[in-house]
Design goal:
Elements (H helix, E strand, L loop, with lengths): L13 H31 L7 H13 L2 H12 L3 H25 L3 H9 L4 H12 L1 H18 L13 H9 L2 H32 L1
Helix pairs in contact: 1-4, 1-7, 2-4, 3-4, 4-7, 5-6, 7-9, 8-9
Length: 210
């Protein structure tokens, strides 16, 4: 792009932006995994079955809010920077983990459950030693999807002051600098592919040993 006076983004190093972006994604995915896994387990227990439609409805409603709207609501409460971005990423990451946790636990063979009961397992020991290991593959697939969604969604965090790979994209759009947009988009895509490949390997190992 020879017509541009500054074709290379220089305001912040791409290494620093990539590290900050990956850290936000990791924290948000961790929160989403804890919340989604907990809700999924509770919703599949006999006492919590009646709550399953409500839990799913709340999670789906959370997904319908545009990320920009979540940020607009969160900024007055949390201020500018990483905090509102982390909130948005966590909300968007819960649904894949929740859905796959419920699906995985519902698919555990009844014969395995009966065998655990016959061996005298309590309900919590049966959950940890039988159900979760057999449902680990689907659950990991939800974690993988949650992380990939967070990688893409985190780019909008730069609009509210978070240090992410969305910074060159936002600055390029504001300044009509296509080169900045392309650089940011390529790096976000590379990070998404890297995260997907890494978690894909983890998922493969989990499914292999489940």
């Amino acid at each position: 792009m020879p017509d541009l006076s500054h074709p290379l983004y220089w305001r912040t190093s791409f290494t620093a932006l990539a590290f900050s972006h990956a850290l936000l994604v990791a924290i948000a995915t961790g929160i989403a995994v804890v919340v989604g896994l907990t809700l999924g387990i509770l919703a599949t227990r006999p006492a919590g079955r009646s709550l399953l439609p409500t839990v799913r409805a709340v999670a789906v409603i959370g997904q319908t809010f545009p990320p920009v709207a979540v940020l607009a609501i969160a900024v007055p409460l949390l201020g500018f920077g990483a905090a509102p971005t982390l909130l948005a990423l966590s909300l968007y990451g819960v649904l894949p983990v929740l859905g796959q946790t419920v699906a995985g636990l519902d698919q555990v063979p009844a014969s395995a459950l009966h065998a655990a009961d016959g061996m005298g397992y309590g309900r919590w020991r049966r959950l940890w030693d039988v159900e979760l290991p057999l449902a680990a593959g689907p659950i990991m697939a939800g974690v993988r999807l949650s992380a990939i969604v967070s990688v893409g969604t985190a780019t909008i965090g730069s609009a509210v002051g978070a240090a992410t790979l969305g910074a060159p994209i936002v600055e390029g759009l504001v300044g009509n600098n296509t080169a900045y947009v392309v650089q940011g988009a390529l790096l976000v895509g590379a990070l998404a592919l890297s995260v997907d490949g890494l978690l894909g390997l983890v998922e493969h190992r989990i499914r292999k040993h489940a």
